[in-house]
Predict the 3D structure of the following.
Amino acid sequence: SEVRPQDLLDHSISIKMDNIEISKILSRIERLANVKFVYSSNTIRADRKVSITASERKLSEVLNMVLKPLNISYRVIGGQIMLNTEDQGAGRPKQLQQSVSGTVVDESGMGLPGVSVVEKGTQRGTVTDTDGKFSINVANEQSVLVFSFVGYSSQELIVANKSIVDVSLKTDDKSLNEVIVVGYGTQKKADLTGAIASISADRLTSKAAAVSYAEALVGQMAGVQVQQVNGAPGGEGLNIRIRGTGSISANSSPLYVIDGYPIDSSAFSLVNTSDIENIQVLKDASSTAIYGSRGANGVVIITTKKGTAGAPRVSFSSFYGVQQVARKIDMMNSREYLEFFKDGHNQAWLDRTPMPGNAPHTISDPNEVRSKYTNANFYIIPESFNDPGNFADVNWQDEIFRTASTQKHELSVNGGSEKTRYAVSGSYTKQDGIQIHTDFKRYNLRTNLTTSVSRKLEVGVAVSAYYAENNEVANGKDSPISYALYLPPIYPLRNADGTYGSQVRNPEIWAGDVSNPVSIAENVTNFTKKNAVIASIYADYQIIEGLKYRLSLNGNLENRRQKFYQPSFVDLDGSRAPRIATARAESWLGANWLNEHTLTYSKVFNKHSLNLLAGFSAQKSYAEYSRVNAQNFPNDAVRNIKGGQVVAGTGTEDENSLISYLSRLTYSYDDKYLFSASIRKDGSSRFGSENRWGTFPSVSAGWRISSEPFLQNVSQISELKLRASWGLVGNNKIGNYESIARTVSGYYPLNGILVNAVNPVNYPNPNLGWEKTRQFNFGLELGLYKERVRLEADFYNSKSVDLLLNVPVPTISGYATQLQNIGKVENKGMEFLVRTRNTTGGFKWSTDFNISFNRNTVLALGPDSRPIYSGAQNANNTFITTIGQPIATFFGYKYDGIFKNQAELDAAPHLANDRPGDPRYVDVNGDGQITAADKTYLGSNQPKFIYGFGNDFSYKGFDLNLMLTGSQGAKLFSFFNRMIGIYHGDRNGLAKLKDRWRSEEQPGSGNVLRANRDPKGLQKEPSSYWVEDGSFLRIRNVSLGYTFSSDFMQRIKVRALRVYVTGQNLYTFTKYPGFDPETSSESGLSRGGDYLGYPSARTVIAGVNVSF
Amino acid sequence: CSEKFIDLQPISDMNAGNFYKTEQDMNQAVMSPYASLRDVYNQLYIFAGEVRSDNTTFSWVPGSSKDMTSIDNFGDVLLSDNQNVLDLWNRSYVTILRANIVLDKIDAVAFRDEKLKSQYKAEARFLRALTYFWLVRVYGDVPKVDKQLSVQEAYALGRVPTEEIYDFIVQDLTFAEANLPVTYANNDKGRVTQAGAKGLLAKVYMTMAGYPLKKGASYYAFAEAKALEVINSPQYSLVSDYKALFSVTNKNSSESLFEVQYKKGGTGTGSPWSNSFAPRFSNKEVVLVGDKSGFNAPTPSMSAAYETGDPRKAISMSDGYVSDPGGARVNEKYVKKYYDVSFSVSPDNDNNWIELRLADVYLLYSEALVRQGKQYQTALLYLNKIRQRARNTPGAAPGTLADYTSFATDEAFLLAIEKERRVELAFENHRWFDLVRTERAQTVMSQEQKEQNGFDPALWNNNMLLFPIPLQVIQSNPEKIKQNPGY
């Protein structure tokens, strides 16, 4: 039974009120007639006082009595009554040009410069000058002027017959009325009972200049750790952790929801940064429980820009900038390296036990003696090494890094009528990498259309597509970037014969296995093309007053193709060309669709406000991968598969599906007592037949104390809210068929013909189920002095149980691991956010500060609480995940300085082969000797706290933004450092190796081991010698902009023009000796192991935004 | 409907629940433990059988880890977290699992031919026995797994005494011997035959007779009997040309009792040895294309072990190569036995790995007789047959490798057999285990390591005869799995 507008207006009421503000009268009518008025207080001026007396009159008549005299019209839309000033000008020709001028001031009476003044519904507009003065021509007396300025509430005024209009803008306390996107709906910020962080559009555009997500997100939200782990062009190398790491082996990245569409892949590649309207991060379990089995790692909700009614607004934005590596690593030069090399080989020679009958070794023993031993390369010092003049002095980092350009250009059109709104945008991004032969290009197109088919039905469609291509260079242990550090500076970039100089190529000074980084970067092709489409269509239908049905269909298609070619003439992996040229072509296809049905019901009666949600959704993903490998290239002329012979290939397919029922209730009483509860039931194909369905409930409550009578008179407090929540959420990020015993085809030749062998793949586990996280959250929000100071604090405790873990099982079973639900991890923490508006006059300054503390502890593991050891290339068992410690704690010997002399050596427990200059380790178990039992915990990559500190200044059209971010207490295991210097002795090392121990007389800094080509002790073993403090404070963003004045704008006929200069990642204060304390190339259970990711860049850009 | 929507089956893999139902399925299941032999023979068994011995070493590889050099050098402690030590264990148990799957599943499958069913069982048991023979010689006591294990069962199993493992091996091989065909039709060539099982059994008995079980004369008699059965099998004879034995055109020859089958062609079934044995910076003289790893390099004592003019040396190894056309000679030794001239893509060659061949059985037979102090002339005859084949191989210097006519002592006879085994079977993974079972390891290795690395013979310890139990194996079940002494 649907309520028709006429029924609503026919409702009879009795009312008597004398000289009362119209807003109060309307409130009374709302209660009496059980209706809801919607209006803008700026338009209606609800503080005007009127009188009304009516007895058993129809609502329509009452409204006419009250509103008509005030020139206010009304109409019923969707069960609500919308009020507006009557447009008496409609139909009449616009004849008169009326000139209006005036001054816009802030609350303190100071003139406000840069305020936008626009005649409503037209393109006529101006901005106030430095004194806040403006002047504008409008159509007629009915014209409405809209005054708007960032940080202030917009105000609308009817011109009437005035020629001078003075306006006072109030600072915006809209942070409370701000609408926050929550799962499957929106809520007023004031009504929130969960912990949700949000970044709005203006913050995204003004601070980030939309270069990359990292700039947009880092340091902006409490409790959200955004690490730029890879600085490669394109800016997609982000690692986001919301409130720590809850999972041990399943993926810990959050769920991304783009305009209501939960997607499996990372949103960073799917959505163009500048198409984003806002980002909200659901942090606590009560907010994410509505996403059930995917909510455990938090949810990032991205809302893209929609069209707004009005004349077409054309915007063009463009920036151009340069990037450089933010920091280079200080390495030894040619002369220093040669000394180090000789020292290291002499030390190894002195350590070597002489052959029977030989005299004790001295450093003056000639090569003829040394070469008689096996591994003579450890001892022989080439003759030429005695004269540095024989060698080049190349800084390899200078050879592989460059100053690179970055640019982006974007055109968008946005507009529409009351019924149909549209937004269309296209952009082009091109970024050269700071490493040679890396680049990124992206073309983006997006359209968004919504239309009201009837008063009850709205439909919308959004399609966004991109095409991108990029050239990559490998990073990590064996890559140009590592080789640029490993490779001694003594080799020439190119040899006389044209080949690239390196250890591999120059055997006369043969000392190791490092090839030339420039050659690899220049000649190995690693080219990727990607394209994707994400499309959504929805229909909203109002069944009856307050009850709405929504159907949405969403699809996402992603394609990626990678072409790899390694020419025959490139030295690689320590082996000299000519090598076998290899080519590889890989392609990925991912398809995903979602069908979602929701019903929402909202009802407001008296002081009760109720919102109900029920929904059903089905989602399915399909992925396909294929690869072809070719070899046997006759030459390097044709560099794709066809140029050689196909030698191998594979193709795989897999899919997963999820079916869900969800429901939520939110209820508030008198805007004071807030309550919310939700439940979701998920069924997923990924889990064992015995455990396929999971139920995820949550409850939360809030109390807006500031609305209580006893706080009404405390004028300092504008907002005070307490909230508490509990929720249960899941994590389903595992492989698609892990619970099923699978077999795979292999081959065995019989009589020269391959026959099939069917091999087991995995240990099945039919009981496999969800990882579950239970989280309590307690929050406080406090607004002081009319929201000039705002404080938000959250405290949480979350326990993840039944962790999905590839549990190492006894390998006598024939399997290494079994995926089980096991163990328990706790994350508990605090988050604080402070926003202050420090000055509000002509010079405006506001500050944002947030800080988050998280402590991660493993509480239980496996059936026998066995620790999980993990490692990385050439670094087995460097990490331990064990009870009482954070996930992925570094594990090894505890370094305690070096033995400066024999006396120190004799005084402490040491290994038999140790000599002065070797490291001293702590005898942790105190048994008087150094054994594997002395390995201990050496810290982890979990920071003690992370923080962001932003300041916004503006003065007369200028705006300045300064953003600092930091992290304190995280440690890094510097694998790359271990791979150079001491690890091989032949490789170049950090400049600090100059301060090494050389002899008892020259002990150096006392903290650098002696050089040694063949260390016999535990030098290569994981120890705290390689663990570094990764704390940092970064000048993340400094941005200076200028918005041009009205005179100028009118002359060039533009609506708005802003120019700006932005510097990003300008400087990092840190003790960490690597490129960047955030870019480490290891993750998961090896998190914080630094094998050198693509270093982050320092970027300076200049840009312009124009709209017409 | 919703249940069906979320009940998805793997697309690119098979669901094991729907497999192991037919004769054809079981044939593919039997191939599975054969296929995993490649994972151990490619490299790991070579480390344990050759590199550990005085035959070969690692020519130094830049950046080569202690994981390799500590297997070679007795002066370095072989650490229990050595990756190779772990891989050898884990991959061997993969083969055992695959064999056990066959044995667990096969009885429920209807076969038209019961003999075929028995054959499949016998093949699985042979492969399981072969793998245990490796495990028990490398690690000593190991867990005995005779079926697929649940996780709980896997935790419950500890190491069982070496002798029990040997008994298990003998049972498997006895069953295999009784149920394997003498020959196969052409398209099944490469599967293990009855003689393969007998030959391995002879070798197992020889090993049981020696160190560490030292079961003595009766087991030498068992070995002798089994060896003789193989020798008398009309299907088998020595290949007249030693070189042809290793040719890719002569795979599964008349001398071959069991070979691990390889096939090149980009299917992941090719063999890697010619590249992995080639010196690091060698050129086309050594291998035509591909990366060179430089491991399993013959030692000076190996090079010197060949009698002057013995053609087997040039066929098996080289003392060096010419660095570039017209360049200097580089004295880096390398193994040549597994070299497929026609290969074009590395490391993807056609060579099979010959695990067991008749020449080995001849020498075992000869040794078994000497150790029992009987049939002196027969023992001499079979030793000389090996020398005779060698000297009739093209490339032999005239007058070389003359027949032995007599030995002053049995000791001398046994040393002659040991030396003959070393050169005849060089780089075929037998040397280390020969030294261990004959208790010659200390004498031979101490000397060799002293010359090579300045090893102090006083540091010798018989614990070095076994590898450590991999650290991760102990960590995953510390209550049940204890370390070998000395590690």
